[in-house]
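I had to read the description of the data format several times before I understood it. For illustration, here is how one protein appears when written out as sequence plus structure tokens:
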Amino acid sequence: MQKTKHSVIEDVFALISAGLFVAFGVYLFQSQDLMVGGAAGLALLGTYAFDMDFGLLFFLINLPFYTLAWTQISKRFTINTFISVTTVSVLTEQIPAFVDISHVNPFFAAVFGGILIGVGMLMMFRHSSSLGGVGIMAFYLQQRFDIRAGTFQLTVDSCILLSALFFISWPLVLISILAAVCLNMVISLNHRPERYFPVPGEDSSKKADAKRVENNEHSSLDSELHAQNG
């Protein structure tokens, strides 16, 4: 697979932009008490089940995923992911100082918030990064085993949201599942590298086919001329 290299400036701008998309999506979720998926969702579930702070649980849950990223993917991916996670954390805390939502329909928050987070994660994937946690595993599985990142993440998020039925009301869980579907549809339909990069040997094969057709056309033309002259 052909890979596009991005400069440091391109990476930084993209990751900050992606962080803003994700942070605003999370802000919409929080405004309606909607559940999230991934490692953050696992940490939130953990706060209901154990007497532990969200921050500590989120840190502990991410440890094995960062190890996976460092050893199996790349150091650049791990560093970029750390930047992305930090950016989202900071922006999520700062957005309420700039935006005040007095009213928003929960279904709109679920759909639009899910799409915003999906676009942000897609940008992170394109710049060798992720939101950490399950996102790291999704990136690794797609790169190593060609398992679609969106499909894997949708499965995990669905399990997390179904588990949330033990802790929050079922209408909020249903709306949160809608948000997860929108989020992962963005990733599943757009994070398809084979659509944007040529498969090795594909160009050569196409050129060979074109040459073969051209030779056949010349051969047919020569046969017709020979027949006419004969």
